[in-house]
Specification:
It is a single chain. The chain contains no helices and twelve strands. The protein has strands at residues 6-14, 26-33, 38-44, 50-56, 60-64, 77-84, 89-94, 97-103, 118-119, 127-128, 132-133, 139-147. A five-stranded antiparallel β-sheet has the order 8-7-6-1-12, with no helix packed on it. Strands 5-4-3-2-9 form a five-stranded antiparallel β-sheet, with no helix packed on it. A two-stranded antiparallel sheet has the order 10-11.
């Protein structure tokens, strides 16, 4: 796994926001095994508050944007989530502006989750009434990019 971090980007235009059954976001892109504290997830929770999480194999670090950076239904937005272990940070950017930051140990490294990478739905969704898998993104997703380094807004493409 990359020692220089991870950057996940996507353009999104949510139509509506799910309730967030079992506290899980509606995934934009994810390859996570949160129980094993491995992988990563970029998703949207209630009321448009989006979040990013990474697992190191012994911890799960997650950052959620404040209400002021929540997504608006029907409007395009560029999301960028940066895991920068050398700086000891997870940073979230909305349309190129930093809107959230969380400290992580500088020794943290992303641990690969041995599950498929999925766009548009949670790879470990809540199941309602034993039938309906939820935690799916309701809207449009475009230009998903995953970089094996911690980019800055100036270097992101």
């Amino acid at each position: 796994m990359p020692a220089d971090g991870l950057t996940v980007e996507a353009w999104v235009a949510p139509r509506a926001f799910e309730w967030g059954d079992e506290g899980k976001p509606s995934a934009v892109v994810n390859q996570q095994d949160k129980a094993a504290e491995r992988g990563f997830s970029l998703g949207v929770g209630r009321h448009g508050r989006w979040q990013f999480g990474i697992g190191t194999g012994d911890a799960w670090y997650e950052t959620t944007v404040p209400k002021t950076a929540a997504l608006a239904a029907g409007k395009w937005a560029h999301l960028s989530a940066v895991f920068a272990p050398r700086e000891g940070e997870i940073r979230l950017f909305l349309n190129g502006e930093q809107v959230a930051q969380t400290s992580v140990p500088t020794t943290a490294r992303l641990a690969k989750a041995d599950v498929p990478l999925i766009i548009g739905r949670h790879n470990q969704p809540a199941v309602v009434n034993g039938t309906f898998a939820v935690n799916m993104f309701n809207g449009l997703i475009d230009e998903v990019k995953i970089h094996d380094s911690a980019l800055t807004p100036a270097t992101a493409t």
